[in-house]
Specification:
Blueprint: H1 6-26, E1 35-37, H2 49-58, E2 63-66, H3 74-83, E3 87-93, H4 95-100, H5 102-112, E4 116-119, H6 137-156, E5 160-164, E6 172-173, E7 176-177, H7 178-185, E8 191-196, H8 197-202, H9 207-213, E9 220-223, E10 225-228, E11 234-237, H10 246-252, E12 258-261, H11 270-283
């Protein structure tokens, strides 16, 4: 290596220092309310609905996504949210419910003032109602067409329809990755995708790859961290304690409007864990 003058050295190291300082200044918080998918407190809500919602708000959450309404009317549910100073912006329904109770579901969500209706799962759904077992490629293509149909109805009612994933959507059938097929076959004007980043990691993929490629198709995200359990399976854990890299994910999520923390399993008090999750996202810099 050739010699380097003192001036050149100071110039180069000074430039590096300025770049490093600029990178620190550019790092920012998400500037979005911290959201919670209420499935995380599914065991607590039936015991003390109002009290649990109050604890959710106290833990740092401002918006929520519903996963069931606990036998409450839309007016009762909305009043409980208002009393807890929470804003419910989205709700989950299984595809089987959307197939059989779409009108009722739309009316309920309109009364709540929701922005989004999301299909939580298509488990057990086949093109032929009598079919059993794993879905075929034709089943998934039929499901994509049903997503378009439901999306058209939901959009006409003034809301937006989306699709949430687990790991089956990342199966490969006849050389085709199902998630890619669902993205290809659904109309972007009718159907968005709520990526559950934890399950994408569990399926062996990187959420940032999809978010970078088609950011506008992902206005909602589920954020959860995953860790490998003693049984070799991936399990939900507190944010920051597993395999997920959310700074990278959130940098790629340029079309994101809301995100919802979802922790499905706990080895400590759930509210303590959800407090850890909220603090992680509050402190995350992207």
């Amino acid at each position: 290596m050739g010699s380097i003058s003192r001036r050149s050295f100071l110039k180069s190291t000074g430039t590096l220092a300025v770049c490093a300082a600029g990178a620190r200044l550019r790092a920012r918080s998400l500037r979005l309310p911290i959201g919670l998918q209420l499935y995380s407190v599914r065991n607590e809500l039936p015991k003390d609905f109002a009290g649990t919602l109050a604890q959710v708000q106290s833990a740092g959450y401002g918006v929520v996504e519903a996963a069931g309404f606990y036998d409450r009317t839309a007016g009762e549910f909305r009043h409980a949210m208002d009393s807890a100073r929470l804003r419910c912006v989205s709700a989950h329904y299984s595809l089987s419910v959307l197939e059989t109770q779409l009108d009722q579901s739309i009316s309920y969500c309109q009364a709540l003032g929701l922005e989004y209706i999301v299909c939580s799962s298509s488990d057990g759904m086949h093109r032929d109602p009598a079919a059993k077992g794993p879905k075929t490629l034709d089943d998934w293509r039929w499901i994509a067409s049903e997503f378009n149909r439901v999306g058209e109805r939901v959009n006409a009612a003034g809301m937006t329809f989306g699709v949430h994933n687990h790991t089956p959507e990342f199966a490969v059938i006849d050389g085709l990755l199902i998630y890619d097929e669902l993205l290809r076959l659904t109309d972007p004007k009718l159907v968005f995708f709520e990526m559950d980043c934890g399950w994408v990691y569990a399926a062996g993929h990187n959420p940032a790859d999809y978010l970078t490629r088609e950011p506008q198709r992902f206005p909602l995200l589920h954020v959860k961290d995953m860790v490998t359990g003693a049984n070799g399976q991936m399990h939900s854990t507190e944010m920051g304690r597993g395999v997920a890299h959310y700074a990278e994910v959130m940098r790629a999520a340029r079309g994101m409007k809301y995100y919802f923390i979802e922790q499905e399993e706990f080895d400590m008090d759930p509210m303590e864990a959800l407090g850890i999750d909220a603090k992680y996202m509050e402190q995350l810099r992207v």
